[in-house]
Amino acid sequence: MSGLLAWSAVTAIASTHPIGQLSPQSWAVGAVLATGAALLPDLDHPGSTISRTFGALSSGLSAGINALSSFVYRTTRLKRDSKRDGGHRGLTHTLVFALFAAVFTAAVIQNSQKWALPVLMFVFAGLAVRGIMNDWCPKQDALLITAVSAGITWAMIAWTSQTDASAAACGIAVGIGCFAHYVGDAITEQGCPILWPIPIMGKTWFPVAPPKIMRMKTGGVVEMAIVGPIVTILSIWLGLAALQGTGALPFLDWVDLLPI
């Protein structure tokens, strides 16, 4: 939901910028991509939600990413960095990765939209569905996730023409989703090395985080009972405001959803 919130906020507030003037179809595609991309950085953790989404395929990919992340951490850490494995909250939890994911997505869609957009929609829809349904969906039911993802992808592609989906907007959506993940991790007890490889206080992998009093435990009561519901409500509100700006909700023209 944090990815959807970030995408909704950016597109609703940036009403004078091209990213805030998308067609309803392009906005919806971006919403799916951003929601799924909010789980993408955790591909470096073999036990994460994203790693279980598509069964053996995603598990195998996760193992490879984890090994790469560990290697990069070991070879770039400084003396003051902790001597941990570095697989999780490593390379995929940096702005470098978010930029790479955004550029890669935009480039692939720009050059091969006919097949790339459906494939990426399927993958990111799967991540979004798994993330949202994680608390009550069977943990290992990859078949269910695949079926729901295929349904979402079919509906979106049927509704969206090839010219409606902006490659640049798709790339930005993925980058925004990754960044939303970093912000969420940064306010947990461990922090997030967003600014790697910039050395801060003698650490290449400096864990960016607010003061300890403002942090929360991952999966704790604060996250599940307070932060989660607030993020969900804001996502719906700003999502409606963004869609109102695209002209997709004429029946809400009587109310200003974003009075700024």
Structure description:
The structure is a single chain. By secondary structure, this protein is mainly alpha-helical. Helix content is 59%, strand content 0%. The protein is built from nine helices and no strands. The longest helix has 26 residues, at 221-246. The mean pLDDT is 81.
| Secondary-structure element pattern, one letter each | HHHHHHHHH
- What structural category arises from helix and sheet content? mainly alpha
Kindly provide the radius of gyration, computed on alpha-carbon positions and rounded to a whole number of angstroms. Answer: 18 Å
Strand content: under 5%
- Count up the helices: 9
From the spread of the alpha carbons, the general shape counts as: globular
Tally the structural domains: 1
Segments where pLDDT lies below 50 for 5+ residues? none
Number of E-type strands: 0
Average pLDDT confidence is 81
**Largest beta-sheet characterization:** none
> How many angstroms does the end-to-end distance come to?
23 Å
Offer a few descriptive terms.
single chain, 260 residues, mainly alpha, 9 helices, 59% helix, 0% strand, hydrolase activity, LexA-binding, inner membrane-associated putative hydrolase, membrane
Write the layout of secondary structure elements.
Layout: H1 2-13, H2 24-37, H3 49-52, H4 56-76, H5 95-111, H6 113-133, H7 142-159, H8 167-186, H9 221-246
Task: Give the gist of this structure.
This protein is an all-alpha fold and 260 residues long.
